[in-house]
Amino acid sequence: MELRHLRYFLAVAEELHFARAAERLHIEQSPLSRAIKELEEELGVILLARTTRSTRLTRAGKLFMDHVPRVFAALQQARDSVQAAANGFHGQLRVALSDGITPSRLPGLLALCRQEEPEVELRFFEVPLSQQIKGLHDDLYDVGFAQSDEVGDRVVAMPAWSDTLMVAVPARHPLLVHKRIPLDALLRYPLVLCDPQVCEGHAKHVERVLRRTGMEPLIAERVASCDLMMALVSAGFALGLTGEAHISTSREAGVVARPLASRVPPLTTYLLRLEGDPSDEISRFIERVKAIQSPESPKHRPDSPGALAP
């Protein structure tokens, strides 16, 4: 089995059309068909069911498709590791990010890593939570951050830091008469929320909060980033619901942060890793995560520039 067989199979599996896959690969259709047949003969199974009208993955093809992208991911990581070594790094830590990361935390963490262990290269991967968990099991990532501790077996979720859940309100909105916004009042207006496919942990937390009233929220839009959420709020399109830090660091004018009237759990970001004794590099990384959440950290005092005014 050659890498070209896997690359050709991946193209056909994604396109489900031999002509389009051949065009994407910049080859003729006949060598593509021949390569797929060679792969099927080597594996002893039919991967693609073909008719004159359609191409579809068989059950074996779907199972094989689950593994092929990881082969290319592992190969790319091997290339990156070699390149990092050639550039003078003596180690690498692969960090997955899901649900976004609290804006005030990442710069401080990166600065501390560069200061204390500059010879270790940090590589970041923004992926959905389900992909992060799978990647931890498959040794594609060493650690990760997500706003959920529902991570299944063999993954440890350690609370890293918390952020107050706040309402992002357009300037001059009627709800600004409230210093603390009641949930039932909030749900009378359209909301822009994070997409659960992209920000699974964040979306589940917000959904649990909104379910407290028994009222059905009017969701105007689902977005993949807090930046777009703030832009829509600033334009008066809807209200947003996210962490205080995301609102306070937003560059959009005309967005006001208001807390909720009822007590709700904060948005907690968890550090995820596989069970077992962590490596020395992962242990030192965990200690730095703990250090940046320390009350003594100057970046996180209430009077720091990124903090919201009371």
From TrEMBL:
Upper taxonomic lineage: Bacteria, Pseudomonadati, Pseudomonadota, Gammaproteobacteria, Lysobacterales
Molecular function per GO: DNA binding; DNA-binding transcription factor activity
Residue ranges of the region described as Disordered: 291-310
Keywords: DNA-binding, Transcription, Transcription regulation
GO CC term (a single one): protein-DNA complex
Annotated source species: Stenotrophomonas maltophilia (Pseudomonas maltophilia)
One Pfam family in the UniProt entry: LysR_substrate
Stated family: Belongs to the LysR transcriptional regulatory family.
PANTHER family: HCA OPERON TRANSCRIPTIONAL ACTIVATOR HCAR, TRANSCRIPTIONAL DUAL REGULATOR HCAR-RELATED
UniProt cross-references to PROSITE patterns, sorted A to Z: HTH_LYSR (PS50931)
Domain HTH lysR-type: 1-58
Protein name: LysR family transcriptional regulator
